């Protein structure tokens, strides 16, 4: 499980830092909900 998290971490960081990387509807919903809080 740790290996999977290590694979996902760089992509998650890129998505958090670059709003243009939030291209799917699901990602837009997730980050939109986070911004509202």
Q: What is the averaged pLDDT score?
A: 79
The number of helical runs is 2
The first-to-last residue Cα distance is 29 Å
Q: Which geometry do the CA atoms define?
A: elongated
Order of helices and strands: HH
Number of domains: 1
Oligomer: single chain
**CA gyration radius, whole angstroms:** 11 Å
* Strand content range: under 5%
Outline the biggest β-sheet.
none
What's the count of strands? Answer: 0
Contiguous runs where pLDDT drops below 50 for at least 5 residues: none
Helicity range of the residues? over 70%
Structural class: mainly alpha
Task: Write a compact overview of the structure shown.
The chain has two helices and no strands. The protein has one domain (2-36).
Would you write up a description of this structure?
There is one protein chain. With about 35 residues, this protein is mainly alpha-helical. It has one domain. Helix content is about 75%, strand content about 0%. The chain is built from two helices and no strands. The longest helix has 16 residues, at about 1-15. It is elongated, with a radius of gyration of 11 Å. It starts with a helix and ends with a helix. The relative contact order is 0.12. The mean pLDDT is about 80.
């Amino acid at each position: 499980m740790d290996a999977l998290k290590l694979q996902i971490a760089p992509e998650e960081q890129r998505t958090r830092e670059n709003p243009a990387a939030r291209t799917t509807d699901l990602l837009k919903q997730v980050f939109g909900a986070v911004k509202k809080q």
